[in-house]
Amino acid sequence: MGVALTEKSRLEHLRKGTPSIATICSHSSLQIFHGGRSEGFNTIGVAQGTPPRFYQAFPLARPNEFLTVDRWENIGGLVDKLNERRAVIIPTGSFVEYVGPERFNALPVPVFGNRRVMEWESDREKERVWLEKAGVPMPRKYREPAEVDGPVIVKYYGAKGGKGFILAKDREDLLSSPIRQPHVIQEYIIGTRYYLHFFYSPLSKEGYRVADGTLELLGIDRRDEANIDELYKLGSQEGLNRSGIQPTFVVTGNVPVVIRESLLQQIFDIAGNIVETSIELFGGMVGPFCVEGIMTEELKFKVFEISTRIVAGTNLFINGSPYSDMVAPSLSTGRRIALELKRAAAEDRLEEVLS
Ligand code: ATP
Known about the structure:
The protein has helices spanning about 5-15, 30-40, 80-85, 95-100, 100-105, 115-120, 125-135, 170-175, 230, 235-240, 265-280, 335-345; strands spanning about 20-25, 45-50, 65-70, 85-90, 140, 150-155, 165-170, 185, 190-200, 210, 215-225, 250-255, 285-295, 300-305. The protein contains twelve helices and 14 strands. The chain is an alpha+beta fold.
């Protein structure tokens, strides 16, 4: 059966049976499959070439079925198979990384969440407009080196995992650094990093109310970043530069953290404003998102980035986190997504959580 579906008929088609959950075999896929399976969904792993063997080691998180492509750019060839199985794609960072935002956005298969969020999140300028409109405290942005009056971080557009970012402790240091284009010069915030895992449900009315839905905090992590996290042991920046060692922020893992309880309201206010502004700007975010920032010693949280989908730091909490355990037992973000999809299907409100 070939299923060539228009945007409207895709939802109608989904309504005729139980949806499946599909995602790329990478990033947070174990958690997504585990969460989907525990809520009774059929799960589909999409892989390039032979699926990784490690799934055999995790019987409760192995997808029920693999679909494979020879190269990611040919993912369009799976559309019929995905639609036959009433698949809903759960977006992760791997779709942007491997499939690319344009190809992913054009895939005629239902996606969990609002696809329009990608254009606002993947462009640093647009993201800043969104966060500023939401009144979110952010690191200062300098238009040119002459304005710099403290430590800065220079970020390149499209840099993967913060590779090649430059840290400068003052203007002089910055002027002597070899900076490429295009870039953004940002105030370097000194404090403690927190990556806050939120979930916005447009369906739920019970809990912490934001707009027409509710906001949940499901966990917090901190990323282990190579090589910056260990560089301090080698001494000052100038010395490192002389030795040809440049700082990088390539994420290699994650550690669980909790934040001081008295800071919770501050971070809920920030996340709530981000959700409300997303509704005004582009019809709203749905489901998981991560607010990434630094808590200063004055206890002010400054946001440097937002990820508008499940982040890999949630993999710490397959069996729940110190926060999600107070929402529901054993609630991972993967399972929370499955629950939202299940509820939307049962209440015939799929169009509110899919795009
Ligand atoms: P990714 O896509 O992996 O999230 P990215 O290229 O979007 O990375 P950022 O997330 O903006 O880059 O930054 C990467 C890392 O740099 C952060 O995890 C954090 O450690 C550090 N960082 C970013 N902005 C600041 C800042 N203003 N002050 C201090 N550290 C920062």
